[in-house]
Amino acid sequence: MPEIGRRLLPVLGHSGGGRDAMTCRYRCGNACDHPVPNRSENPYLGDVVNASMSRRGVMRAGAAGALVLGLSGTVTASAGPALADQKPGKPGQPATPGKAGPLKFKPIPPNTLDNLVIPNGYDHSIVMRWGDPVVPGAPEFDLAKQSAAAQAQQFGYNNDFVGVLPFGDGDRALLVVNHEYTNENLMFPGYTSLDALTVEQIRISMAAHGMSVVEIERVGRTGEWRPAGGHRLRYNKRITGSTTPFRFTGPAAGSALLRTAADPKGTTPIGTLNNCAGGVTPWGTVLSGEENFNQYFVGGDQAPEALKPSLARYGITTTARYPSDSRKWERAQERFDLAKHPNEAHRFGWIVEVDPFDPDAPPRKHTALGRFKHEGANVIVARNGRVVAYMGDDERFDYLYKFVSDKKYLPGDSAVARRHNLTLLESGTLYAAKVTGDSPAAEIDGTGKLPADGAFDGSGTWIKLVSGNTSYVPGMTAAEVLTFTRLAGDKVGATKMDRPEDVQPSLKTGKIYAAMTNNTNRGVGTYPGVDEANPRPANKHGQIFEIVEDRGDHTGTSFTWSLPIVCGDPADASTYFGGYDKTAVSPISCPDNVAFDSAGNLWISTDGNALGSNDGLFATAIEGSERGHLKQFLTVPRGAETCGPFITGDDRSVFVAVQHPGEITGASVDNPASTWPDGDYAKPAVVVTWRLDGGPIGS
Ligand code: FEO
Ligand code: CA
Ligand code: CA
């Protein structure tokens, strides 16, 4: 059993899915308790089908308890198209070729231990935890004497996205991490309420948001990594929610909608907020999604009337001066009061690009990729050389998007190529997805039973919203489409999905995988009902959505889709695992982030397990006879969510971010619900896991 230093709190009420109410409060401002922001009458897929029916502390599995799942089978890794040029890493300095193959690890069972549980034959260590020094000279973390100045030099709170960008020798890399949000209950001893926080404490929270860049080094010849020492650490830096200047790029940069009193040119926003998932680009930068930014603003009731509908569409309260769940940040920075600075909200909700190899370059917010509750963005280089970014808007009944660059990717790491590639996301075309099922609506009966053709599947189109300064949405300018992208999606009839989270192309096959995490409002009351792409009402467990671009052209406007995995307990008849024997797969709930190893196996992390287990990381083959043979690789401690994940290009290490450990209603620093990772109180941390024999992860 794990060592538990003190008695832990019982798990109290959960809200929406399996997520604890405290997570709902701090992470997304109780989004599930608010009305769904998308009340557009844009037809949902069910309507479309009905209208056109004729159309188509190391704890290993051995110690965690008996295992009842089946053992591994064999996988034949398919030889995919030559996309190896896109291995994450510094261009021109390819990582050691990957060695992943069939998934042979013995899955771990679901559990509720307050520990990180990994399979036999693996080990793990903490790479960075909340408060660890990042910037050279940063003070050591002192919980009792924390200051905003110290936090701005230390690892932030609630790590989410993890990217690892290697240097050429393969033994050093830059770890780039998002810090999505803070939980003041679990950060400040003696916490009573947000109203009682000092302004300095609010500034600490602001500084604990943002991103970190940390140079790391391999330990010996193993798959373990640790913070680099003995260098000048010139790349290490913090980006915060409150102090870091950004630069807007793209067609909406400088537009009237982005101008404020502090930035009359509308070009230089300060800080990044609620950075959730992200991606590593082929040119060696990191993309990061600004997600639930709405909760940081007050005063929406006094914003200009003309702005209220768009503010509300983004989940900002426009009926009260102080929403009950606001973060009180206006006490520290007036700009968070929309009564005084109504355009400030428009300066969040973008895709951020950070070049970790150029510590002096200001991070950018790319307006060409639109503004919504960006989960993240992942890029693939299309056959014609343009780059395509796939993106989800994480809200119930919101949309999937893609961006196609105007310019073409230049391979290599010459200064000319790098300078060119850094501009790829500054101009292009933005599309929203419209999805159609190919089975009769009567066969989508809400039980999860497959329709007669044997699959939840169909076709789709990418609807052009805006290209450069040309808007394709009636009544909206290009700047309006980019700033109010949700409204543009409503107008063109994009398809309402079950919370699109991480969307990532497989570099092995070119197919795209999107995690639809859940949607407990689907088919409830007056909310849109089930459709072939979102086939279960009150969807607690989510599904994986696979996109195959027609003719393999990522820049095209038509695709086919299917659901390879419909999540939940395999014993539940409404689940589906690619047709694989369901008695041999691990239960999974609320898929959130996806990743691939070099063999193209799909790795899925979860957020808010509604089956009673801790969240975890899973892996499955996605091609061949093993498609759908999902196995659980690890679980995170109590109250935590599994974020990242990131599998290094050599397949020897998997990084995960353990986000919000101990985030269980009633917990505090003084009375923690988790004592991971140090045995005292809970701290979010990035973990690396590797195989003891040095072999490829999972294989
Ligand atoms: Fe921050 Fe969509 O999860
Ligand atoms: Ca079908
Ligand atoms: Ca997420």
TrEMBL record:
Region listing for Disordered, in residue ranges: 80-103
Superkingdom, taxonomy of origin: Bacteria
Listed name of the protein: Phosphatase
